[in-house]
Amino acid sequence: MRAPLLALIAWGHAGLIAAMTLPCSSALADPAQDCRSGSPEMRVGGCSRLLAEARTPRQRAIALDGRCWANIDRGAFADALTDCNGAIRADDQYPYAFHNRGIAYAGLQNPIAAITDFNRALAMRPTFSNTLMNRAKAYVTLGNTQAAIRDYEEVLRLKPDNEEAKSALNVLRGTAGTSPSLNANNSLCGSMGCN
Q1: What percent of the chain has pLDDT over 70?
Q2: Residue 13 pLDDT > 80
Q3: Which domain holds residue 77?
C-alpha cells in the first residue's frame, strides 16, 4: 500500500499552477536505500519494492539478495534461503548471493552446504575476506581445523589487522591463553561485514 500523498499547489513563473506530490513517509522514498539500511523489517520491505522495480536479472538478484540478508538478520533462515535461491536463479554470477546463501545454510545448521556456497562465492571473488571468515567458521563446526587455519591465514594476508581472524587462529593453534573459546555459530560475516 502506498503512503498517502500530500498535494502541494505552487504558482509557476508564468502564473500556471503546478501540482507537486511528496510522500509522507521517508521509508517509501527510496527502495534501494531502504533495502540497504534500517531495521531488517524495513530492509525486507525496501528490497521487495526494489524487486518490483527490477528490470534486469542483476537487479532482481541484488534485490533478492538484499532481502535474503535482511531475513538472515531476522533469523528467518528458511526465508533467506528462498530469496538467495531466487537471486541465484536470476543471476548465477552474483557472488554475494552464494555468500549469503552459505550463511543461510549455516543458520540452518548445514555447514557442508554452507562451505559449498562459500567456495562458489570465492571462485568468483577470491579476495572476499568475509566469505573466507565464514568458511573458516563452517570448517571449525565440522572439526576441520587445518582448513579453518588456512582460511584465517588468508584473511590475515588480505587484512592484516583483522582481530577476529587473529583471535581465531590463536584459539585454533592453542596459543590463546585465557581467550574465550571459538564459536563458529554466533558471528557470521555478511555482505556488509561481520556481525
Answers
A1: 74
A2: no
A3: 34-110
Does 87 lie in the same domain as 47? yes
CATH code: domain of residue 58:
1.25.40
Buried residues in 161-179 as b, exposed as e (16+ CB within 10 A) = ebebbeebbebbeeeeeee
Residue 24: predicted pLDDT = 34
- Check pLDDT > 80 for residue 84: yes
Same-domain check for residues 45 and 97: yes
> What are the phi and psi torsion angles at 121 (to 5°)?
-65, -40
> What are 112-142's pLDDT values in tens digits?
999 999 999 999 999 999 999 999 999 999 9
Rounded to whole angstroms, the Cα distance separating 52 from 152 reads: 39
